[in-house]
């Protein structure tokens, strides 16, 4: 019998248990899977309008900066998002950023002329173990397709940007979850490509590696964590929320290793900030700082849950040059279903 995904924490989930439980948020994927190409792009849209004209507040935390993302400097300075959030592989960042710029200019011909230039926002993880990065297979059309097909219901696991990702020596990928904190919803989406096999922890219980033990290798992966909420927060408060993503990440056994790019970004859909200076700024009553603890708990729990969803829903496959990654769900299929201590990975055949 297959081992069910353990549930993290006591807070209730939204209907989908996904980031799209935050109203207005949608997610789209394009997956490339042919020959030695196993990669893709995932797009998270904060709302259905034009994010360049109707910007949303955001803040982020760099837990470890071994990454090649585009757009974080301006987010730090202005505290807003101006494009959807794109996830892809390391070498595809320039192509996806160019796609975001072209998309914005097409919709707003005054961008970069009468109006400010747009700030593309692209995050990456290195999927080069399973994917031939040098093919640079992800193009602008793939971003556009992922954007146009974004919806509230979306696949998780070995899809989109997660197709070629690895976690804890196992197949990684895209995972998502949500938690309700009083009147507000918090949703998380992760691109999981991190972790050392011997450090894996599931729902608070260490996982025994198969025997003979897999050699311990240095941490060379990354994880991108996106947090959405409908709580009225400003950029400073959202940065505080993003920092708590590290609590959920650490619970799974991450130490934010030297070679891992671990970045968390949080945004709010409670209000938008106009691009055009002639439009009035919103008058929003922000949530009091003393009331943030419930959201902090929701962030930590939803991030940990999203990572488990990524691991459970990923599928095993053989990628570039015969490199293989087994799926966690396959290796745990003979484990007891009534307890998660201890869990032991069976050696893949």
UniProtKB/TrEMBL annotation:
Gene3D superfamilies: L-amino peptidase D-ALA esterase/amidase (3.60.70.12). It holds the Pfam family Peptidase_S58. Keywords: Aminopeptidase, Hydrolase, Protease. This is D-aminopeptidase. Belongs to the peptidase S58 family. One of its GO terms (molecular function) is aminopeptidase activity. It comes from the Bacteria. The keyword Metal-binding does not apply. Its EC number is 3.4.11.19. It is an enzyme of class 3 (hydrolase). SUPFAM superfamilies: DmpA/ArgJ-like.
